[in-house]
UniProtKB/TrEMBL annotation:
SUPFAM superfamilies: FAD-linked reductases, C-terminal domain (SSF54373), FAD/NAD(P)-binding domain (SSF51905). The keyword Methyltransferase does not apply. FAD binds at residues 108, 253, 559. The active site is at 526 (proton donor), 569 (proton acceptor). Keywords: FAD, Flavoprotein, Oxidoreductase, Signal. Residues 102-125, 296-310 form the Glucose-methanol-choline oxidoreductase N-terminal domain. The lineage of its organism: Eukaryota, Fungi, Dikarya, Ascomycota, Pezizomycotina. InterPro entries: FAD/NAD-bd_sf, Glucose_Oxidase_domain_2, GMC_OxRdtase, GMC_OxRdtase_N, GMC_OxRtase_C. It comes from Xylaria flabelliformis. This is Glucose-methanol-choline oxidoreductase N-terminal domain-containing protein. PROSITE patterns: GMC_OXRED_1, GMC_OXRED_2. GO terms for molecular function: flavin adenine dinucleotide binding; oxidoreductase activity, acting on CH-OH group of donors.
């Protein structure tokens, strides 16, 4: 439904709203993003199940900035980008930092970098220890394969560095993955491979086997032969959009409508949702079975808060009556800060260079790792206090400390990777982009008012914990060593800052690096944790069935439920989680 000023158009909009008001669906899904469309596809496969998806974004199947894999970032700051910004960040000179997220049918999968990397096995096994029985690498692995349709690299792609392990990839899924035909030609791949090898990072065969340490060329979510981005809409929606039992409604879900009952079990029952039409009208829609929030880590918590689910003290300030006391809503936001180094080059090449290097604590700290392990362990209680102090009383020190110790164990005992570096070339520039993977600085996202569902307060609290800065500085120095090591150093020119000025010198102090990171800091756009799947005692919001605590029929299925960060990119894991969630929901309906 589109806003219009003509009388006929206005009447049509009113009538359409009235029709929507009278409709009842079995499942209402808030958000046609990466996860929401997986659920819509799987649930509507049964013609007796009526599914409605409410989404404010447009159909972008013919938008060249979406479909062309080479145009990554061009869609930023266009109408298909929410164009959020953070609250002022002290670690970035109190700047408010732009934050991009997809506003389209397909969500952020329409504007992301299309990277398909899963992560390290122990990181997913850790989910189970947080009260999520049955959530681990082994249980997720079949769903990674179920979602994927992998294209074997051609001989030319193999020569340009594309490698893979056949056993870990799916062949019949909905999401096309593979390597672009325009992998960088010439010798750049060999230069990068040899230089990273000289720094102690081996070339790995496949970064989707559950162990990512080393250097590799990553696959992407694209159809190689058509040179076409495969976002979630192209993967899960366009092929089934004519199903009569599947409807996408243009609008923005504002809150859940609760049934009024005298249920002595005090379990809240959702009877539908209230959404805002493009022309500002409020419409209610009825759900016979379930309401499922798939609006993403930055929006699903806002819908819960608008519905009276969250931290009572925060809801009271907003003038919202608390229905369910779940103070973890909107807390535990975990985002990865990104820093970029640029160098000029006269090296002539073309194409794409999706090269990733993953580092462990040992790689970054060397002989100091044992001392770092001990000192950071001793500081965890203080880190927990910092997280709690910034949370409006939403989280408890003991809970935060347990979660941080789980992450500390992954880093120093399980030896998972904690830093990622992108090595690429574009035009006349050599580029390193790097980010710490497992931050101890945890933030929040919350409503700012009952009428501001589209302008959340996003506070990632970058570098609240000093160890995160130590990791980021280590990654910066590592990238700097790369460009000054043969053979790749032979093609490197002057260093450049992405915001103007110079890079830190080779012998830069921690203070110089800190200033550079502050000046250039940007989001990595991998937010998770704001409606975490873990025990309610720990501050969790959803249980292992992804059902919101205290409700009978409300689930959350998106990045907000992921309780800990991992050494991959969100897309691969979100598809796997959504595929598993669909099976859970269908099984519950049949019980």
């Amino acid at each position: 439904m589109r806003a219009t000023t003509s009388p006929a158009g206005a009447l049509l909009a009113i009538l359409s709203a009235r029709v929507a008001y009278g409709e009842t669906y079995d499942y209402i899904i808030a958000g046609a993003g990466t996860c929401g469309l997986v659920l819509a596809n799987r649930l509507s496969a049964d013609p007796k199940i009526r599914v409605a998806v409410i989404e404010p974004g447009e159909d972008v199947r013919n938008n060249i900035n979406v479909t062309d894999p080479s145009l990554f970032t061009v869609a930023y700051d266009t109408p298909i980008d929410w164009q959020y910004s953070t609250t002022p960040q002290p670690a970035a000179g109190n700047r408010t930092i732009p934050w991009h997220a997809g506003k389209a049918i397909g969500g952020t999968s329409t504007i992301n970098g299309m990277t398909y990397i899963r992560g390290d096995k122990p990181q997913f096994d850790a989910w189970e220890s947080l009260g999520n029985e049955g959530w681990n690498w082994n249980t997720l692995f079949p769903y990674y394969k179920k979602a994927e349709k992998f294209t074997i690299p051609s001989a030319a792609q193999a020569a340009a560095g594309a490698t893979y392990e056949p056993a870990v990839h799916g062949e019949a899924g909905h999401v096309h993955t593979g390597f672009p035909f325009f992998l960088t030609n010439g010798s750049f791949h060999q230069l990068a491979t040899d230089t990273w090898s000289a720094l102690g990072f081996p070339l790995i065969q496949d970064d989707n086997v559950g162990s990512v340490r080393g250097f590799s060329v990553w696959p992407q979510t694209l159809d190689r032969d058509q040179n076409l981005r495969y976002d979630s809409a192209r993967s899960y929606y366009y092929g089934v959009e004519d199903r009569p039992n599947l409807t996408i409604i243009k609008g923005t879900v504002k809150k859940i409508i609760w049934a009024h009952s005298t249920n002595t079990s005090q379990v809240a029952v959702a009877e539908g949702v209230e959404y805002v039409t493009p022309d500002g009208k409020l419409v209610e829609l009825t759900a016979a079975d379930e309401v499922i929030l798939s609006a993403g880590a930055l929006r699903s918590p806002l819908i819960l808060e608008s519905s009276g689910v969250g931290n009572p003290s925060l809801l009271k300030k907003l003038g919202i009556e608390t229905l369910i006391d779940l103070p973890g809503v909107g807390e535990y936001l975990q985002e990865q800060p990104n820093t970029i180094l640029l160098y000029s080059t006269a090296y002539n090449t073309s194409g794409s260079a999706p090269y990733a290097t993953f580092s462990t604590a040992q790689d970054l700290f060397g002989s100091k790792t044992s001392a770092m392990k001990a000192s950071t362990s001793a500081q965890i209680p203080d880190w927990a206090k910092k997280v709690v102090a910034a949370s409006n009383g939403g989280v408890k020190e003991a809970n935060v400390e347990k979660l941080l110790r789980t992450q500390h164990d992954l880093i120093f005992n399980k030896n998972v990777t904690i830093g990622e570096s992108l090595t690429t070339i574009s035009g006349g520039a050599l580029i390193s982009a790097m980010w710490l993977l497992l931050p101890f600085s945890w933030g929040s996202v919350h409503l700012t008012s009952v009428d501001a569902i589209n302008t959340p307060a996003i506070d990632p609290r970058y570098f609240l914990v000093d160890f995160d800065l130590d990791v980021q500085i280590g990654l910066g120095r590592q990238a700097q060593r790369l460009w000054h090591t043969e053979p790749i150093s032979n093609i490197v020119g002057d260093g450049l800052s992405p915001v103007g000025g110079a890079l830190p010198p080779l012998n830069a102090t921690d203070e110089q690096w800190t200033q550079y990171i502050s000046d250039t800091l940007m989001p990595n756009h991998h937010p998770i944790g704001t409606a975490s799947m873990m025990s309610r005692d720990l501050g969790g919001v959803v249980d292992p069935k992804l059902k919101v605590y205290g409700t009978k029929n409300v689930r959350v299925v998106d990045g907000s439920v992921l309780p800990l960060q991992f050494s991959g990119h969100l897309t691969a894991t979100l598809y796997a989680v959504a595929e598993r969630a669909a099976e859970i929901i269908i099984k519950a309906a049949c019980a």
